[in-house]
Design a protein that fits this description.
Helix content: 55-70%
Largest sheet: none
Number of strands: 0
Structural class: mainly alpha
Number of helices: 4
Radius of gyration: 24 Å
Distance between the termini: 59 Å
């Protein structure tokens, strides 16, 4: 019968490493928040556009479809979505921006 060696018992972590993580209180930067809100809107628009591009038959198009087109199509959809969001979008960025500001200004309980 062979003897199986077990790993040594796990030691408890020091108390300073088990304290709950809290995020530091940082002043909100409206430009960064606006950028994040616009990026979120672009991502949402991209998710809405993707099914439309998935239904297009590209086999007989000018580019001919293929693996290359399939590889680059998601990036094309995201760039189209970014342009739509940058030029007014669907109006999602403003409410998202407002909600992000409210979240940062509220005091944690």
């Amino acid at each position: 019968m062979t003897k199986v060696s077990l790993p040594p018992p796990v030691q408890q972590m020091p108390p300073q490493m088990t304290a709950p993580l809290t995020r530091p209180a940082m002043p909100s930067d409206p430009a960064k928040i606006a950028k994040a809100a616009q990026d979120f809107e672009a991502m949402a628009i991209g998710e809405l556009l993707q099914p439309m591009f998935d239904t297009v038959d590209t086999a007989n198009s000018a580019f001919g479809g293929g693996a290359g087109e399939e590889a680059w199509k998601p990036m094309l959809v995201q760039e189209i979505a970014k342009q739509i969001a940058a030029h007014g979008g669907l109006g999602l960025a403003k409410p998202v921006y407002d909600a992000m500001l409210r979240m940062q200004e509220s005091k944690p309980t």
